[in-house]
Amino acid sequence: MSKEKKLVEEITSMETDFARWYTDIVLKAELVDYTSVKGCLVIRPAGYAIWENMKNEIDRRFKETGIQNCYLPMFIPESLLQKEADHVEGFAPEVAWVTHGGLEELDERLCVRPTSETLFCDYYSKVVKSYRDLPQLLNQWCSVVRWEKTTRPFLRSREFLWQEGHTVHASAKEAHDRTVQMLEVYADFFEKDLAIPVIRGIKTDKEKFAGAEATYTIEALMHDGKALQSGTSHYFGDGFAKAFDVTFTDKDNQIKPVFETSFGMTTRIIGAVIMVHGDNSGLKLPPHIAPIQVNIIPVAAHKEGVLDAANALKNRLVAAGVRVKLDDSEKSPGFKFAESEMRGIPLRIEIGPKDIENNQCVFVRRDNGEKIFVSLENVESEAKECLENIQTNMYETALAHREAHTYEARTMEEFKDIADNKPGFIKAMWCGDRACEDKIKEEAGATSRCMPEAQEQLSDVCVCCGKKATKMVYWGKAY
Amino acid sequence: MSKEKKLVEEITSMETDFARWYTDIVLKAELVDYTSVKGCLVIRPAGYAIWENMKNEIDRRFKETGIQNCYLPMFIPESLLQKEADHVEGFAPEVAWVTHGGLEELDERLCVRPTSETLFCDYYSKVVKSYRDLPQLLNQWCSVVRWEKTTRPFLRSREFLWQEGHTVHASAKEAHDRTVQMLEVYADFFEKDLAIPVIRGIKTDKEKFAGAEATYTIEALMHDGKALQSGTSHYFGDGFAKAFDVTFTDKDNQIKPVFETSFGMTTRIIGAVIMVHGDNSGLKLPPHIAPIQVNIIPVAAHKEGVLDAANALKNRLVAAGVRVKLDDSEKSPGFKFAESEMRGIPLRIEIGPKDIENNQCVFVRRDNGEKIFVSLENVESEAKECLENIQTNMYETALAHREAHTYEARTMEEFKDIADNKPGFIKAMWCGDRACEDKIKEEAGATSRCMPEAQEQLSDVCVCCGKKATKMVYWGKAY
User: Fold this and answer.
1) Which residues of A91-114 are buried (b: 16+ CB within 10 A; e: fewer)?
2) CATH of A406-476, one of 1.10.10.10, 3.30.530.20, 3.30.110.30, 3.10.20.90
3) Where in the cell is it found (chains A, B) (predicted)?
4) ipTM for the complex?
5) Superfamily of domain B13-277, CATH level 4
6) Taking CA atoms, what residue in B is nearest to A109?
7) pLDDT number for residue A361
8) Alpha carbon distance A2, A338 (integer Å)
9) In a 3-state reduction of DSSP, which class is residue A201?
10) Distance (Å, rounded) from C-alpha A44 to C-alpha B468?
11) For residue range B362-373, what is the model confidence (pLDDT) as tens digits?
């Protein structure tokens, strides 16, 4: 029992200190580790396998919409970065600069890409000539660098992994539709595969991406009531096209600029999974993206027939397409249970001598702890159904949590009271004025998360200044 | 006809100028394009899709041997790079240096990884404590940077994509076995999936990896008779372990250094596929890694029923798991044929009014141009069988070419004559002396490619100095 205790003991409870709980989990579940490179982490196999599954699900959805993958250089010459004024203003202060190649100083500094709008525009300016070349629907999976001062595993680090999609179109409408379509792809992935409900909406001008005309976002609520921006899709109009001279000859023989979009999702969504689903026993992975969906733990494994039965069970589940591990190590069952919980494996199956006698095994669900005796007869279909139930229940639990932590404010007094005492989303009307947005941040510590698709008329006036309201906004403290 | 002519016309024939033929193909088949970043390329969708298929095949094989993926930082602090003397000497002259982060100068320069032995050792020194933690079998897919002076698409560029596997073991034997095992994984992938025969062997000390005790390699022969080092697997002994203090407590309670390996394969293997299989009509992709395996081209597509039949055919092949494209664009059939050849699609299927009448279609093989009338009855199995035949034939053709261009030399005169007049591999005996290796390079322009597994005793004496020979070596001019 001492080892089991140790495994659990070392996690700070989330009620005591949510930030420490989070860090304990990412380290104890062996998702990441610190390195000798300041602000950069190792993503360990257990963490990377989650990312691989996320990638596969996102990539499949992308390809279904006609997107193709490619790879552009990791370096951007300083002159290229500077071509679009808003963009360079947003990114130049936080990029890493390469100044020497081999033993020589470079003629021109290169930054390590913080994002690749500039390179994609440079590329499109070469390959797009006619309306027949449009649309171009490209994406790349890569790492990017932003020289952050403070970092946290997955949520903010100097280097992170992501995908960045960049498309160009013949018309503003088509580009705008694509922007919205990709936000919906993200939302669908979050809700179906990560079991995390999201608010779909548009960023205010203050919060939008450097150089974009409009930034669409999905926002998720973490267990501690803080928001996490989880995926963004940007509409650029023809601003970048004009700066980079990306033009095409249209059907009417006129030369016109293209309309552009970009959209990205990063390894920070692993942080979202941890902070939405995890508990004081560790990680809880949604079955759709769990590298191991079922952990078979033999009980009294030394007794005759137990390991054989466990192995037979494993082979049956593998053949049925379930991702299974059989833990036949020498650790005690209790330790294995605690470890399985720490690592967030959705379903644990115990099998011992008595179970074999009764032609059964025991399912233990990670999401709610439920114990179910299951006949070995149809264990494949039972396991698959149980995993889908876990997936659904995790989504519903997260949705209920978000609904219980979403508040409405009609006055600044109400707003500040909620912000101070009730962690969560705050819905409130806004006049559209930057001054009010700044004031809300200053006085209540909350930023605008988004102007949701699903607008509600909570009142006619801005929660801050009392003038005519134009939008309902989700506000919150955010990662 | 003018358009078809144009597409083909623009390729230099390989007999005229092999280097230009190669460059023409990578550009015309839209595999890569140049960028504003000197020495770095865009890998375009048609090129990246090939890499994705290669990745999947390699990654699957890796995982079957127990390897897991992870991700380490792209930056290496200068002090970390310098810990292993041979390694830093090999790489320091060709790395890119980051000196500024945001607006500030860094305390210590960071290089962009040229390879990650140092980072993996740093990581393993933290996580490996006991023999129970061994072996560690990790791999990462990423990009690396080497500041090359001259570059060529895929073959040599400042940034390239690769995988790098890094393992640590409790014993020298286990590490050595792993080194050989991974070489065999590479060889199997090359021969089965890329249809390229390889020579498996060991590098001489002169040609081995910086810091390695032994470098194993697979060497392939290109169509022009030059060799391409196509994948390497390194055995490090405990050199790095001692430099980085990667130690473990063994079963006997003694603290010991681990034994290490690394192995890598890069996007240059796309160059190998082009230069082994391509011809003057363009690329020839082996079916196993071709993003599109079958290109259906309707003939007289405007006639009633043709497009419907082509679509029905496509759906049947897709359902059978074949990667199919239906080219229903407005280009002429002749242009489509030429384009399909340029892009290296293994099998073209033509279907027109007469074929529909006869319940048939026409297969045209890219590998040998053969035309086959195939009943629509069992077109799925016929297509799959045909693709496998193409795969096999491509391998056999490449093998025959290599055998026809492998020579033996017993004297320096013979050696120089072959090197001057007969492009290909030269098998010759060697005394093991670096001086002879240098002299052969100077006088015949050939480098040692490898000391093959399959040794032959061509003579008793070194081809260069006449002293006692210790090894038969494959020599050649190389990319």
Assistant:
1) bbebbbbbbbbeeeebeebbbbbb
2) 3.30.110.30
3) Cytoplasm
4) 0.95
5) Bira Bifunctional Protein; Domain 2 (3.30.930.10)
6) B98
7) 98
8) 12
9) strand
10) 50
11) 999 999 999 999
